[in-house]
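Exam revision sheet. Question 4 asks you to relate a sequence to its structure. Input first:
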Amino acid sequence: MRYKLITIDMDDTLLTTAKEISEKNKNMIQRAMANGTKIVLCSGRPHKAMYDYAHSLGIDGDDNYMITNGGAIIENMSGEIVYQKTLSNDFYCEFVKFVKEHVLPYCVLDIQGNTYTSGFEFIDEYTIAMAYENSRGLCIKEPEDLPADFEITKAVINGSEQRLDEITDFINQQFSNYFVVRTGVGYLEIFPNNVNKGEAVKYLAQQLEIELKDILAIGDRDNDISMLEVAGTGVAMGNAQVGVKAVSDYVTTDNNHDGVGDAIEKFVIE
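Answer key, structure tokens:
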């Protein structure tokens, strides 16, 4: 079967633990593109934290796309946004009131990928890591210090895996009208309802006139499940969470052993 589109998560999927793309992953992706298959990186990261990786693979131009911010934004490689769903400043204010009441470290991201949090008591290692990864710095601001029309792509509650295990059900209950998902070690993220990678993939496929059955999706964590489920073939990484493997059609090798490249070689390269 010839797949027309491959959607690939980044952290712990395309990238090794050293945040690098292996030679086999790069080679297989480029061979797939040479055969006419479109490659779309699909990540919780914002544009700037994804662009260099995409560019290194040869994913360029107005007719190539990235799904960023966990599915809240779809943009082409020139930075033109073609799809966007955000959270209002009213939500941002209520969220900050909630995390302060419960003393939870947090950060939020705006459309440009800037990271915001409150005073220094709310800055932890995960907030710093997210700001560093996004390459946009860390802004110490309160919601009321920002324009009334200020919007965010997601709100993030940070903490150790044990701490997030303890509070995930509670956060889901408190934000039941939103999409709440664990996206990586230390991050519990809140998006507008019906904003996820799967919905973004469906939207982009429709715009590109590609049927879902002609899509191969590869991922490793809970926030990839919606993408794996809508695709014609869903591939879980060898290092994927148990629930991700359960909904996938195939389990490839792990992210440190060319899992993406092995999957493309098996399903796409003839």
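Marking note for examiners. The first helix runs from residue 10 to 14.
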